[in-house]
Design brief:
Layout lengths: L1 H95 L2 H21 L11 E5 L3 H7 L23 E5 L4 E5 H11 L1 H9 L1 H6 L3
Antiparallel strand pairs: 1-2, 2-3
Length: 213
């Protein structure tokens, strides 16, 4: 009987010891899990912070880029509007001139172009057998514009010039060169050489200083 009781006591002690060991094991595992959870939470927060930082930086960069593009687009739009206004003003001025004045300007432009060829040692001569075309000019008007030696090279019909443009023009074509003189080019040249002055006259010198084109 005493041996049976001793066995039960021993079993209880073994079970209690096993229970305590199991508790300690579970407690250790729980602590490990808690420690790991803290570490992972810290890593997650660090990752989130890094992502937020990168997102903020990217958003700022994108915002700066958008604003820069908007400023450039605004400047381009303004420049385009001024350019169109200048061209319209120049073309309107030419259209307001009488025919005699328009032809005088075209003759001056043609003379300049022919002189440029002479200056480089390659003038147009009768030996080149040039062909002379015109736009928006009668044969009589074209004859008044040309040097005497070129008048007989007018190609019929006189209105055979096909390049786009709004105003009278002359083309002298040879195997070596193609010379063009037109009032449209006079406008383009004027806009290139006197753009600042024309812009100031159009929108005002003070506005031009505040916002350069």
């Amino acid at each position: 009987m005493e041996e049976l009781q001793s066995t039960e006591v021993l079993d209880k002690e073994i079970l209690e010891d096993a229970r305590k060991k199991a508790f300690r094991t579970l407690k250790s595992s729980e602590d490990t899990i808690k420690d790991a959870s803290v570490v992972w939470e810290q890593k997650i927060q660090a990752a989130i912070s890094e992502l937020q930082k990168k997102y903020t930086e990217k958003t700022k960069r994108d915002g700066d880029e958008i604003m820069s593009r908007l400023v450039l687009d605004k400047q381009r739009l303004r420049s385009a509007k001024i350019e169109n206004a200048l061209k319209n003003a120049a073309f309107s001025f030419l259209k307001s001139l009488n025919r005699e004045r328009q032809l005088a300007l075209l003759k001056k432009e043609l003379t300049i172009r022919l002189k440029e060829l002479e200056d480089v040692g390659d003038p147009i001569t009768t030996e080149d057998k040039p062909e002379v075309y015109s736009r928006f000019l009668t044969e009589r008007e074209l004859g008044k514009l040309l040097p005497k030696e070129l008048k007989r090279f007018i190609v019929e019909p006189p209105l055979s010039f096909k390049n786009a443009g709004q105003f009278p023009a002359v083309v002298i074509n040879t195997k070596k060169v193609k010379l063009t003189a037109s009032l449209d080019e006079v406008v383009e040249s004027l806009l290139r050489d006197k753009r600042g002055e024309l812009t100031a006259a159009l929108i005002g010198a003070s506005a031009l200083k505040e916002k350069k084109v």
